Structure prediction request, 273 residues.
Amino acid sequence: MSFKRFLGAVGILFAVLHFSCSKEKAGHSDAMDHASDEWSYAGETSPEHWAELEKNSDCLGKRQSPVNIIDLNVVEKAGDTAHNTLFYSPKTILTRVRNNGHTIQFDFDRGDSICSRDVHYDLVQIHFHTPSEHTVNGIRYPIEIHLVHQSKEKDRFMVLAIFGIEGRESETLERLESFLPLKEGEEKVINKALDLTTIFPNNKDYYSYSGSLTTPPCTENVDWIIFKEPSILSLEEVIRMRDNMPLRNFRNEQDLNDRVVSLYRNPHGFPRN
Ligand SMILES: [Zn+2]
Prediction:
C-alpha cells in the first residue's frame, strides 16, 4: 500500500474511532517568533551569547537542543510503544513563506498533525538549517529540516527533524524553493495546497528525546523526533536554501546531561512509503 493510501486509511480510522486527540482548530501562534531579533549565528550575538542577550531564556538550561546522538548509547524501543501517529494530508495549505533573517520559514494552515500519547499537535511551520543542528555519531549532515508542531494549549512543541543528503532532486524541495529567492525580512503569500508526505525518508526509524527550541528563548518544551535515515535531495536544492539563509545557521551541540535518546524501529504510526 502506498504511503498516501495508508495515510488515507489511517485518517478514516481516526475519524471513526474518535481517538482522544482532538481535531479542533488549534489556531496559529507565533510563540516561536517572540524572541528578540538581537540574536544571530555569528559575532557578538552568536549562540555563545544568547543567554546574555535573552535574560529570561532557558538557553543555559540542562535539557537543551540540539545534541549529538551516539548510536552506542541510544536505547532501542519497539515501534508499537511510541504512541505517535502522523496524520498528513496532501490538501494542507501552505499559506506563506518568509525570510525572517534566521531561516527560511514556510507557514501552514491547520491540516497536517501528529498525535502523541493522546495529545494533538498541529503542524504550524517548517524551516531549514544548513548544515544540520543535530549530529549522529559526530557527523553533521548538509541540511536539517524542522517540521514544527504545536499542541492545542500551545505549551508544547513536537518537532520532526529530517536530515538531507545530496543525491537526486526532491520534488517537494523543488516546489518549496520555487518561491525563493527571498531577501531578509521579505515574505510571499502563497495559499496553495502542498503535499509534505513525500519529504520523509523511506525508512521511518527515528530517534526521540526531550529537549528545547534551538533558537532563543530556547524553551525546554520540545519533544524531538529525528529520522535516522536522511532524505535525498539535490546539491542544487541544498545550495539554493543555504544561499537564502545566514551562513551556518545552526546552534552548537548541547550536553545531554541525564537524558536518554531512544530509537524506535518500524514505528507503527509512521507508515512506510
Ligand atoms: Zn529549527
In short: Residues 3-22+63-265 form a domain with the Carbonic Anhydrase II fold (CATH 3.10.200.10). Residues 9-19, 23-31 have pLDDT under 50 and may be disordered. Residues 127, 129, 146, 214 surround zinc ion (CB under 6 Å).
